[in-house]
Batch of 4 targets.
Target 1
Amino acid sequence: MAVQFKVPASPSRSTLTIDTFKGADFTNDPASVDIDKSPNILNMIREVPGKVRKSMGYQTKATYEGAINGYHTMHGKSRGLIHVGTKIIETDFAGNDTEKYSGANDSRSRSWQFKDKVCILDGKKLLIWDGTDVAPAENNATIPVTLIGGAPAGGGTTYKPLNLLTPGFTEQFLGTVGTTEYHLSVTDLDDTLCKAEVMQPDGTFNTLEEGSGFSVNRTTGVVTFDSPPGESYVTGEDNVKITAYKTVSGYADRINKCGIGVLYGASGDLNRLFVSGNPDNEYINYQWFSATNDPTYFPDTNYQIIGTSKSAIVGYTVISSYLAVFKDKQEVEQNIVLVGSTTLNNEVTFATQTTLHGAPAICKDAFAYLAGEPLFLTSLGIYAITSQDITGREYTNLRSFYLNGKLLEENNLENAYAFVYKDFYILSVNGVLYILDGLQAVQTDKSAPYATRQFVGYYRTNVDANCMWEIDGALWFGSKTGKVCKFYTAVNDVNSYNDDGAVITARWETPDFDGKLFYKNKTFRYLAVRLQEAIATSIRISVMKRGLWTVLTTDSSTANYLSFSSLIFSKFSFSSDNTNRVVALKTRVKKVDKARYRFENINVNEPFALDKIGIEYVEKGNYKQ
């Protein structure tokens, strides 16, 4: 009788496919990271939702002496202002530079446009750019009419408050027959020459300069005309206007020393400039606001004291119809104060409506809006305030849980800088970028149970951005060492993938794979990666087993295709197939409880984009160390 042999059945193979890539998870242990996230992603960004590609690089467009502290634009003007050290220079970054101002604060600056003027705040002077010149706002500040209907001997009706930015004020009088002496309500005037305007028979005013038609006793505040102005030619209308000057010590510095601001107003009109951030101890919790549509007029009555005097105002956002004023960590009970507007006797006033408690803001330059949400930086990560929070007493909307594992280890977070470019919130600190994706949010997990969702995050290195801005759809940044750099925008151009000629290392690392049963032996037998095709691209694949990394393969040809318009002889390919390609290899990662894979591009001027990853493995027997 013939002996029959039975071939033992092969262990069944299990498969794992990754077809969605949702950024970083630096916070969870690699064994606990979701399969669509990476515990060690580097220099990759969203291609389309669910897919990632290598981050594009940048090119230095100009170099200056001093830190780049800001860039300011004016609607309809092709050239902007670059703030370098203590200078403000008008430039097109093509070698056409004109210095407009010196003596600026060597610190980050911010700007807002009002009609045909841009006001710039640098913590030293409030500056005004009229499209031609840049000068302190106090040089051409609005001089208010403080008194009307005055009698020559004194008195009258108070009209408008003094302007903190200028010592100038105007008082108006109803003249009387034969009177030459007019008494101002202010004594001990400055030496600045006064001006007088006297009504003529046709109702117009003739301007007189001091010393030519009148004299001034500065001690008593009495103005004496050479000829009496007489009575008004228009019944009930003031016919004498006198402009004089008296400096109130520290008034202008209340505004000039402010370093933060926001546009806000009544009924949703963003027509007033609110400023704060004055470092003087007595003013750290003060905010001032300008007159409507006039950033050169800050009435001395237009101020609010927000919270306790031991806690400074850090920043602003506008939420619905409210101005959210953020206090620092010294404010124990009210980290955010919501200010609203009311109208009383046809006058708009601003008052505190309610307060919110939560993680305090720590950085004045990290406030920005992403996907309709105001974001800000705290010692616990990047938070959002939503309209729903207004009706509550606390806010808990953490948005950076997946980045916090690295972000919260950074030093000097209070010096970070944030900018929103397209759908990304970009936070620059210590030469790296932490990026939140406004197009991709995932429901929160048990690690952040009170936040409604988390934004997908990315991590970019080698970007020394002290400030950022956008010109014609491209992202620019200025460094602390004086470089002005522009990020490339052509995704399919191989020359977009370098940082000033340097390699950009792109990496996607998987979480630990431990199969269906974590305690079983695994043998990983097959690996496939589908790459997006390119004129020149490559991939290096490594595996970590028992804590050690081993390179499995390097492929520099499979995903390349031939393009005569962009021919690169060193990376020549005969293939004309410009569809996605699969790089596949057999592997023998044997008898391990888990494995982790790394996919990298380490060459200059090479795009790199992942589409799918597939793994086959076998589970058999219990794992033994």
Target 2
Amino acid sequence: MIEKMILGGYHTPELVDALNTNESTKKLVTEMCFKFDLKVYRRATDESQTFHLCHSNGFSVCKVWTEIETEPYTNATKTIYYYRSPYYRKDRGRSNADKETFFSAKIASLMTTLKRGKIIPNMDAVMRRQAHEWKRGISYLRDSHGVDNKERVLSPQQVHELLKFAIGGNTNLDNFDICKNTLDKYNEADKILDIKNKDTERFFDNEFYCVGADMFNDLIVGSVKRVKPSEPTPEKYIWQVVKPFERVKEFDHDKYKDLSPILVMNKVAHEGKNFYGNYIPQTDGYDNSLDVINISDYVSDFNITWLLTPCSQS
């Protein structure tokens, strides 16, 4: 029973013992896993009765725990069951933690609240949250090619003189030079925009790796590509998973032979930076020499810092 609840690769005697230590917590975890198809991947701390749960692809969904409370007058004790996740926030609460937390003295009541309120995010919802971070990578790639916006380079007086020149009211040939220089700048901006669009399509419309790391130094590895949705959506593009994501404690160099040297060279390139999961630097930007985009974030149990790089097309 317990083995089925634990994410592949994360089964340890210590985790099993921790789940078996407290019957109430074990019951809560069991209900969460089997009612919402979640997996246990970690105990918060060695002494904690808080457990982190994720989808089968390794993306963190929530943490659950139990606490014992004592009635003020009778001194009778009761177990309180807790659920917390940033994917759903109540309208009212004293803090973000309070808004993200649901609890009940009855486990059945908590399960009903979570189910009726559709509080547990499905895999697509979790992916959309991470896709917001991947979109930042598009900006980093495009910014690396320079400025393409046609900023106003002429003063109002110059515009006035050029208008007179255009209709024959001014024969000053200096205006011709101003027109030519401005046109050259605009043409250059168009060239840069074209390069940006083509490079964005090259990187994101083909399969690329997404390698993330969280506060536990676990790695999330998979690949996606950007596609146009077949049905109308608020988004112009959606992210299609190519290689299913997985959570791993150690990077598998044999499994990802084309990705392995990129991670190693990227680590060397960012020597001195803070790394998560041994390979993901907490930094932002596009490295043209490696064709790598680094996307940093405040790293937590739910927030991930990412590295994006094209998959080998061979």
Target 3
Amino acid sequence: MPADGVQFPSGLLPLAHPVRIKLLHFNDLHGRISGLSAEGPTPIFSRMVSWLAATRARYADDPQVAVLAASGGDESGGAIFDALLGSGPETYQLHAGYRLYSQAGIDVGVLGNHDFDRGAALLAHAIRQDVRFPLLAANVSGDLGLSRYCYPAALFVTKGVRVGFIGLITPAEIHPEPDGRCCVTDPLEAAHNLIPAIRPLCDVLIVLSHLGYSLNQRSAAVRIAGDVELARSLLPGAVDLIVGGHTHSVLNEGGLSAENIVNGIPIVQAGKFGQFVGEIDITVDKAVAVTHATLTATTDLPVDAAFEREHVQPLLEQVRPYRERVIGRVAQDEDLGTDAVRNAFASGENALANFIADAIVSQARVAGYPVDFAMIDASSVAGGLPIGHELTFGDWFEVMPFADTLRLFRLSGRQIFELLQDNALRVDRPNVPHTERGFLHFSEQIRYTIGLGPTPGQAAAVDITVNGQPIEDQPERIFLIACGSFVRGPAAPWEASAQGISRRLFDLQQALQECTQLCVRDLLVDFITAYGGVLAEAGARRDGRLRVLPPTTG
């Protein structure tokens, strides 16, 4: 129902001439509003703003062209600006993406899964403080605070044309709320319920989607449906366009491709991290048609110098103390460097992995959780450290840019045995290209050997002990295990296409688990600060907890 005083337009007036809706879109910036390096900041969002401002200026007085701008979600979760979000409303400073989008005049956005990384309460607070445009999520329910600040749909009337947007978010890779109130429901069900209600009010109806391109996509986990499956499920003419996100897909770079038109509905997406700005033309006359779509590389765009100076530079100054704060020093160990993380992190024991897993055990116990051991997904570590140098918060943020929260699993000894057999299948093998397989590193309480066997499907874990006792002697004991919230998430594409694996993989997500609001990165920063750095004496060393035997023949 409309709010008091709001009257829905009755219908499309007779047009003296066709009207073109020019929609600019981007998705999955993950807070990369500016590229940060030792050489200084590199403008990203200010280039996108220049394109938007120039396009609006070009058509401001043209009665036949209307310009709208939309974001496809995931506005945080991967850049140092996330530090300004704080850990809750009481420590919140600002949401860099939302604030800049509002200042740039973005018209509409959709929530993404990573926008929930710090919980629904903080997300609602960020929207209240910094968003000045409608944020959409038709399939989010249960949280009364969040529901006051985001909407199922939005309707714009521009140049005499009614343009509607419906927002949908993927249920994949969402941090469950500890109280269970906020949940992401079936996007197909939400779309099928909402479209018949809003379609009569719109001349153009667009789905602003953070579902991902399709269930077959390998770049991110997609659940229930992606944009392709959504399009196939709809009646002809139900919607005119799907503007996507989540899977970081680069679609229609050279123009609208026939393979991205599903059931008559064009699907668009603009990569990630501000690589591209997408532009779509929707022509409205006696009928509605998407007549053009393309992507423009952001690096090819000029910088809006005034926007950069007035809006971006103050945020760079605000985040500088976080980036430059020294939290310790790094040992002289090649295991801790970027080359090791990129090339050998999932190949066997590693000093950095040992340090992180052991630190999680220590910090979880300090927080009051009596964990037996910890594990980390190799994909949760994005880079290495400055070997032998000072370590800053910014350096550690590059290692752990994701806002993983501490998750607790309860597994029996029998399940741990099965988990380690599964883990043996995921270790990087010699002479095989490396990809994300969800290989787990464990804290010092777990010791075992992986025999690679003659083929990938024959790898096995042997000589397993937990706290010095053989796992075979503890089959019914229940262990409490700490890890990050996105454990095994990036492994979904490999799991879906695992070659030569006949054994059933261990489904960790079906195990009993408990979510906390403790940020793993913050726990590690506290540990590093307390121990003076990532040092051998603090646990950054190999201790023989994992042996990997070379492949056998025959």
Target 4
Amino acid sequence: MDACNGYREFFLKPTSARQRRYELLRARFVEGLAIPQIAQRSGLTPMTVQSQIRDFKKALDQGSAPAFFVEPKPGPKADRKKSAVREHILRLRIRGYADTDIQEALRRAQMPVSVGLIDQVLREAGRSSLRKRSRHDRRRVRDEIRSGNIPGLTLPPPATAREPAVADVKDLDLQSDRTLYSRVAGLFLFTPWLVRVGLDRIVAAAGMVGTPMIPATSYVLSLLALKLLDKERKSHITDWNFDEALGLFAGLNVMPKTTATTDYSYRLVEGQHNLLLAEWVRAAYPILCPEAAHEFALDFHAIPHRGRSTGLENHYVPSRGQAVPSVLTCFARSVEPPMLCYTQADIVRSEQHAQPLKFVDYWKTLTGVAPDWLYFDSRTTTYPQLDTLRQRGVHFITIRRRGSRAVQQILSRPASAWTPTVIDTPQRRHQQVRYLDEAVKLPGYGGACRQVSVTRLGRASPTLFLTDHPDISGREVITRYIRRNTIENDLGINVNFFHLDCLASEVRLNVNVDVVLTVLANGCYRWLSRQLKGCERMAPKGLYRKFVETGGHVSITPKEIVVHLDRRSHNPILSQARLDQTRSPIPWLGGKLLRLTFA
């Protein structure tokens, strides 16, 4: 009787989930018990019982009721890989393949396995250790894997990856009708300007070097394209090696490789980049600045070196708050009309003070006329250099360094000696200041220099302006020097968009070439902003995002090159500028005419 009770308990108290499900369904549909009674008997909640009944009805309606009671088998559903790859693993180990070599060979044979599985198979066969291989054996294994000729394995034919073509002007096809697509076809918006300014003649006059495969004009256009396309480094040209349309922009079949662009600066050992800058300014200045400029702002910018430097001097970098190894660069910008017109990066500390005079000689050589005014800060030059500027008839306004004794003497002057005035600044309209105008004696400066001390300019200490001009008012001295801030805005653009600081080289020649290209790219965007109505003050980053970074199709026809830009919301501004009306032959593209169209 006790044995029968034990058997009875097996059915009344099921332990398996499948059996429990069967008993509660039988109690419902055979015995006709209510859901609360079934829940009490099986030790489940009424909701669980109800869900089991619902799932059973659904499975029965779909004709899969028998599978509803099948107990699933744990473990993998598919065959294990070990048995399929065991023989291959052992055979390859006998041939001297390491674990990683075996993994790569099986992957090439479309049998991917882990290194752990390979090690497990080898340990089970007693072949976990690998004899020391000679260099010849390692090379043989490597060659077998690369060639796909692995004994005992049938490998599929290797996928042929498309290699970018080598930049070669002889491979540029301008005869057959074809259409290319580029996601930055807006770069061709600069082509009419480059043709108008005569870039090919500028490059030839500067004596820029080239090769039979990449002419000098194509070299310059390729490097300039990186600046115009917001690329940080020359090595990023690999992003465009497959874009034949950009190669067409540079007069090539494709853009050059990284090695060609990074090594180009070392070819210019005769200073051709300085001649390139001079020829560019001589050609572009009359177009961008139809009114002759007489006022120029100068400023220095230190490009910090990333990495271990062996031959660079320390210069103060404001972004780091300390002096670090860096390349010192000098920029000059015409105040009105605005245009970057000079740069130099091959500067050492002993030559820093001579930069204003070097710019004066540079500008007089280009235009035949020396600048009338120069604006620069206190660290640009020395007092003897200021005296030289005075003797040469070049007026200047600069800031004098504030010594504590000089500041105390100025602040001790009575209020009646100060002159109140109101100046207009870009951020602070009608700012009330007061100034003290007096003559001071400077060491190394012949005669007396005029000093204008100004308070309430946003600093606790007064600002000391120095000028040689005897007639202009103190208020005009202040407002003239405020114009110098425009070059600081341009330097910010050069850093943020043209990535002036993204240089890791300690070779000043390399940096010098890059800053020259920065001036050229700045001039290109200056021209484009003047062509587009309402965009005269737009920064290069905005112009790039709205106009240049536009995809489009580039079609080569027997007589012209047609660039059709994709539809974008700002295309009407391009149409309004009538850029599509320009029909200028492009010298570096076989004299073909360029036609721009907009969707």
